[in-house]
């Protein structure tokens, strides 16, 4: 194993501060960094020696032999489940990385439902209230091509359910709902059996469209409530927990295990085929290149390597380390060459940032002459990431397409959700605009349908009797 690089910022909030120095021996589970503000503890994922402590990372030289044992976490009261979650350094494993101990520090039984915005909830009566409080488990595996969340259900459903029950206990929620895409038949059947005797836990089936895993989309699909871009799920008496995060919670409480590993999918232009290579319990800090080699190595010339998903991931390098939030490593085919043609960018809250889309346009040899935003993309404060008013449920984009045409664009690159891409296609091609989606090079690599015209119904019924 090559050197492990553990970044000091793997979560929402401020970077952690190292509490080790060069030359220190560490074990799997040794605490090596602590928060300086909002954040989560960071632990060594291997047995070894600290080589360097840099401004943004701790570099560890692993021992040749690695033991399975780890240093257990310790808290003053071993029965304090929330304290165990906090000490274990668990964050949202689905990508955002919000510290889970902070998220679960709420008493949902005493939480009042916030006033709903009538404009985005026109179908609900003004006096609508939720009778129950909820843990909503995000099992959507939102980014196309990734499969590690579904694999965890298939192989570790008991652990996941234990984690969900702990979440319910900690937050005093009286119900839990698994939000999972209807297409995952095997996982759904396994999950159904795992909760057969859990009267307060149910399953809600989602359509196979992006972004069903966005936090507010999970609330909307499961509870029928549209939250504003400023509201948290607590406004709907709920907490949304990623599936893998729930499993980490079970590990922290049952095994006193710190958060030192990550499940992820490696996929794309890989020797042996483009199928998903799922790796469970990978030590945090292992390099992208090492995981690609474990999957078979890169097959010839490629376009780029993405860390994360096709929509929200970023281009990365072989020596970059994985973190607690890394869900995917995608090796893509080469980009098409637009030969300097004029390009318009349609930036969406559900896809890449303007910076990421400009990077893609540059790699396609296109000249960006126009930039528009999806009409539902809201900037809550200057410089903050965009938020969609109704994730996955978008109106037309005719006005933006007309602007692109006015600005003499030949091509447009879009980063929109399934529904929004569909509305772009309703008018863009008729205006002579040639459309690329920012995920096209990934979708073509993994054999997934391109995001253009929506062919999947957005409505999916719940399983009979909530199960």
Automatic annotation (TrEMBL):
Pfam families membership: Complex1_51K, RnfC_N
Enumerate the spans annotated as NADH-ubiquinone oxidoreductase 51kDa subunit FMN-binding domain: 85-250
Highest taxon of source: Bacteria
Question: Residues in domain RnfC Barrel sandwich hybrid?
Answer: 3-56
Query: What is the name listed in the Swiss-Prot or TrEMBL entry for this protein?
Result: Proline reductase-associated electron transfer protein PrdC
| GO annotations of cellular component type | membrane
Gene3D superfamilies from the entry? NADH-ubiquinone oxidoreductase 51kDa subunit
Q: Which organism is it from?
A: Sporofaciens musculi
Coiled-coil ranges per UniProt: none
SUPFAM superfamilies in the record: Nqo1 FMN-binding domain-like, Nqo1 middle domain-like
Keyword list (alphabetical) reads: 4Fe-4S, Electron transport, Iron, Iron-sulfur, Metal-binding, Repeat, Transport
């Amino acid at each position: 194993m090559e050197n492990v690089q553990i970044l000091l910022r793997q979560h929402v909030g401020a970077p952690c501060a190292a509490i080790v120095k060069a030359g220190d021996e560490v074990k799997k589970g040794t605490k090596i960094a602590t928060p300086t503000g909002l954040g989560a503890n960071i632990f060594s994922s291997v047995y070894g020696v600290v080589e360097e402590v840099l401004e943004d990372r701790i570099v560890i030289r692993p021992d040749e032999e690695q033991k399975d044992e780890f240093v257990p976490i310790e808290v003053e009261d071993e029965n304090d489940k929330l304290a165990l979650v906090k000490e274990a350094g668990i964050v949202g494993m689905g990508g955002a990385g919000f510290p889970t101990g902070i998220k679960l520090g709420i008493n949902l039984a005493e939480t009042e439902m916030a006033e709903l915005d009538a404009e985005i909830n026109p179908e609900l009566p003004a006096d609508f209230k939720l009778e129950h409080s909820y843990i909503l488990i995000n099992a959507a595996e939102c980014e196309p091509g990734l499969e590690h969340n579904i694999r965890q259900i298939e192989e570790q459903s008991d652990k996941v359910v234990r984690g969900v029950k702990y979440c319910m206990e900690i937050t005093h929620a009286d119900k839990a709902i698994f939000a999972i895409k209807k297409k995952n038949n095997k996982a759904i059947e396994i999950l159904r059996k795992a909760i057969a005797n859990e009267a307060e836990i149910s399953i809600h089936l989602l359509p196979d469209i992006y972004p069903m895993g966005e936090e507010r989309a999970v609330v909307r699909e499961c509870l029928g409530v549209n939250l504003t871009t400023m509201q948290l799920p607590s406004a709907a008496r709920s907490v949304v927990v990623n599936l893998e995060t729930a499993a980490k919670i079970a590990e922290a409480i049952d095994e006193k295990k710190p958060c030192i590993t990550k499940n992820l999918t490696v996929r794309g232009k890989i020797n042996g085929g483009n199928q998903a290579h799922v790796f469970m319990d990978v030590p945090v800090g292992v390099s992208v290149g090492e995981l690609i080699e474990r999957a078979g190595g890169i097959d010839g010339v490629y376009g780029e390597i993405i860390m994360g998903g096709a929509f929200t991931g970023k281009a990365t390098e072989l020596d970059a380390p994985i973190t607690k939030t890394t869900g995917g490593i995608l090796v893509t085919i080469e980009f098409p060459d637009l030969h300097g043609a004029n390009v318009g960018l349609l930036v969406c809250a559900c896809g890449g940032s303007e910076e990421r889309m400009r990077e893609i346009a540059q790699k396609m040899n296109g000249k960006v002459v126009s930039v528009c935003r999806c009409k539902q993309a809201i900037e809550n404060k200057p410089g903050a990431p965009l938020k969609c008013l109704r994730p996955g449920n978008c109106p037309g984009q005719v006005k933006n397409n007309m602007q692109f045409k006015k600005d003499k664009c030949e091509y447009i690159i879009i980063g929109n959700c399934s529904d929004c891409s569909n509305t772009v296609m309703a008018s863009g091609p008729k205006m002579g605009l040639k459309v690329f989606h920012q995920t096209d090079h990934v979708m073509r690599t993994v054999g997934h349908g391109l995001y253009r015209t929506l062919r999947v119904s957005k409505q999916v019924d719940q399983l009979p009797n909530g199960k």
